[in-house]
Amino acid sequence: MSDTSSEPRRTVGVRDVAALAGVSRQTVSRVLNDHPDVAPETQERVRAAMTELGYRINNAARALGTRRSRTLGVLASDALQYGPSRSIAALEASARDAGYWVSAAFADAGDAAAVVAAVDHLVAQGVEGIVVVAPHARTLAVLDDLRIDVPVITLHSAGQGARGLSVDQAAGARLAVAALADAGHTRIAHLAGPADWLEAESRADGFAAELAARGLDAGPVIEGDWSAGSGYAAVAAVRSSGVTAVFAANDQMALGLLGGLHEAGLSVPGDISVVGFDDIPDAAYYWPQLTTVRQDFDELARRAVAAVIGGVATEALAPVAPELIARASVAPPR
Hints:
With 334 residues, this protein is an alpha/beta fold. 43% of the residues lie in helices and 12% in strands. The chain has helices spanning 14-21, 25-32, 40-53, 59-66, 82-97, 112-124, 137-144, 169-182, 198-213, 228-233, 235-241, 251-263, 297-310, and strands spanning 71-76, 101-106, 130-133, 152-155, 188-192, 221-223, 245-248, 273-275, 292-294, 323-325. The chain has a four-stranded parallel sheet, sandwiched between helices. It has a four-stranded parallel sheet with strand order 6-5-7-8, with helices on both faces. Strands 9-10 form a two-stranded antiparallel ribbon.
């Protein structure tokens, strides 16, 4: 008897599925393409046959016949920070739930040619829509100059542009400042993100707007770079400013600030209260546990996927509301 274990296994095709399910190949094709005119029991029989045979859908082949690839493109110009990386993961999960796959391309936001090449790459793959994780204004500027023949949605663009979906960044910043002001703080500083990030700009705007709405003096703004190191380095400026509270534009900078204040002999929230932004998974385990603003990245991704595959007018989609998560890093000033 010859050993056939190393022989290549024949690819299971539509003909095999049709034979096992007792239907025509056209019926199998209709099930594959979610055609409504197939009886539920027939769909169930066809899908059971696919499972039994180990049939795998070939999106490229299906696209040739239906002009639908069941694939969405994701273009990321910065995927290293928590927000963008979390959104990319959420987009993949939301697309999968909708019966789609994701093809990703990455490009430096400062390199216009790279952004154009990434878009061309995704379009050439036959994606049915593109979600751009675009935290920088220069990425939006490149997109505005392109003619793209599939729906395009941008995330992390602070809602700028007609196709932008976002968590309301300014509203989130106002929640953070309100939590500090409601605790009795009147001298509040802002540890801001990098100036070239759209969301950092919106959070700084929200910080200033909430202070003004409450009749409080404009607080000092200390620029960081999203890293815990920049939060740690901001301690000297915070101490010299005489503030009793700080709104940090992300949780990593808040972490560095907490560490630096402790090293300087100051307690949080006894001497200085701190609020962050993002509610990263570790925020509940900082010492003290960090009061922060939560962004619902899963809802943002769900809306983005629905928009690109369903043709939802982006103008009709309101920003996702942020949520304040109150923990132990805020107390009344001494």
